[in-house]
Amino acid sequence: MTEDHLLDPRLESDTLALGETALCSVRLARDGRWPWIILVPKRADVTELHELPAADLSLLITEIALVSETLKRSTGCLKVNVAAIGNLVRQLHVHVVARDEDDAAWPGPIWGVGTPELRSNTSLPEFASEVQQALSLAPPG
Amino acid sequence: MTEDHLLDPRLESDTLALGETALCSVRLARDGRWPWIILVPKRADVTELHELPAADLSLLITEIALVSETLKRSTGCLKVNVAAIGNLVRQLHVHVVARDEDDAAWPGPIWGVGTPELRSNTSLPEFASEVQQALSLAPPG
Question: Fewer CB in 10 Å around end: N or C, chain A?
């Protein structure tokens, strides 16, 4: 994250930075059970979507749609799930997750299900590289 | 719904119409365990957010934020959850749900949890009336 914005410690530990847009820190979930990207608007003390100004909301939905489209194309998934929940981690963050009928939670939601299976840190999955390209991400600082 | 757009039968049976914006059919979930609004873009054959054109996405996030803000103000809830999942009902629809620590699924997501407790049809809850006002809804046709 940029120095003027702090990432919640649990988001920090559960995700890897893919880069930053003007609005968001774009993160890959360390839990490898699903292709799973998390967008974190770099705005202090925001917990709800409606607390973002209109210009930020417009940027955010554009970035959500780009990530969704990229996940679908890259993984060939059946469905993309998009959610801003934040019951446990209150800092506003948006999940974009590729879902398939043979995945670990189908057809239910993924949050709170089972035990995370952590990705190795040695190589970025292809869908994550494609998200970096689609969003023209600045590298993590 | 307008005659040029068909609502998925399960959305039809699980929700009550509150009215329509230019983009969406705005629905109240019949399951009364949570204050729960569902926005259904009146666009044929759309299952993913990224299939909507930019103008529709911009309208949609504006409406989501308005519903979120209204639910929070009206119910005094701790957190609003927003999600487009659609693993079972494929027609694109966005949930906006008021959450509290004493609710039936906290802190987990609400989808697929327990057994619905249907609202009586006799009176609209206050938050639903306030959503109608906030979105200046045209009455259900």
Answer: C
**Nearest-CB residue to B99 (from A62, A87, A108):** A87
pLDDT (mean) for B103-124? 93
| DSSP bridge pairs for B16 | B28
Question: What average pLDDT values come out for chain A (141 residues) when binned by 10 residues?
Answer: 73 96 97 98 97 98 98 98 98 98 97 93 91 90 66
d(CA A102, CA B9) in angstroms, rounded, equals: 25
CA–CA separation, B92 and B51 (whole Å): 10
Q: Are A141 and A133 in contact (CB under 8 A)?
A: no
Q: How many Cα atoms sit within 13 Å of A50 on the Cβ side?
A: 16
Q: What is the rounded CA–CA span in Å between residue B49 and residue A94?
A: 13
Q: A-B interface: how many C-beta pairs under 8 angstroms?
A: 106
Interface touch A61/B57, C-beta < 8 Å: yes
pTM: 0.96
Which ipTM did the prediction report? 0.95
